[in-house]
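Quick one, probably user error.
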């Protein structure tokens, strides 16, 4: 008997910009035993650098411009249709800078994760590094969490920490946290994907 090939979760990554986290996921998924297969990258911004990077890596890359739609939900219905057209089972947001409606979150319930540049539950929303510095924190970091209707509110799958030094600026902290994100996200997606695959057994 030939050994059975482990199933990989058909995964899409949603981006809005440079796509460094997305590329970390694409690179991790080059390993045949990684539990997720990155089949599709979608950006709400057609000019996103990440679209070019995904395409160059041989991953199908699509732009769905949110400005072409009158409501958030109309945009998300198009997004949902594209995910379904590509037979996607799981969605990882990686620098996707649109707030998702309850409609989309319910539709992808327990199949939708996000990376956020703070140690959640601290600093939900924007300007996380600036807020950590202003608060005098000595530790910052990033978290990957399940997406629920409250923005950045779902349970944390995994996180990475970075020590804040007295010399740190918003930019230096952002750079060091991003370096940890690129290690964190592939690990957290693997955890989440194994969890989903185990639920399907
Ligand atoms: C990352 O730092 C990510 O954590 C953050 O945007 C950056 C995207 O960079 N996400 C958020 O702020 C979500 N609220 P990338 O496009 O190079 O991966």
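Nope, works fine. Designed sequence:
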């Amino acid at each position: 008997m030939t050994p059975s090939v482990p199933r990989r979760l058909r995964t899409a990554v949603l981006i809005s910009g440079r796509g460094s986290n997305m590329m970390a996921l694409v690179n991790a998924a080059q390993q045949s035993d990684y539990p997720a297969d990155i089949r599709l990258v979608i950006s709400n911004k057609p000019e996103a650098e990440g679209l070019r990077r995904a395409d160059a890596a041989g991953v199908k890359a699509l732009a769905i411009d949110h400005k072409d739609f009158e409501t958030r939900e109309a945009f998300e219905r198009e997004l949902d249709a594209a995910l379904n057209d590509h037979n996607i089972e799981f969605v990882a947001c990686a620098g996707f800078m649109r707030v998702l409606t309850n409609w989309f979150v319910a539709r992808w319930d327990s199949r939708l994760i996000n990376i956020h540049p703070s140690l959640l539950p601290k600093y939900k929303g924007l300007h996380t590094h600036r807020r950590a510095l202003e608060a005098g924190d000595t530790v910052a970091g990033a978290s990957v969490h399940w997406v629920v209707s409250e923005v950045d509110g779902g349970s944390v799958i995994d996180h990475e920490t970075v020590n804040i030094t007295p010399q740190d600026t918003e930019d230096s902290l952002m750079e060091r946290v991003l370096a940890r994100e690129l290690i964190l996200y592939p690990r957290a997606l693997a955890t989440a994907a194994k969890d989903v695959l185990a639920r399907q057994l």
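The mean pLDDT is 97.
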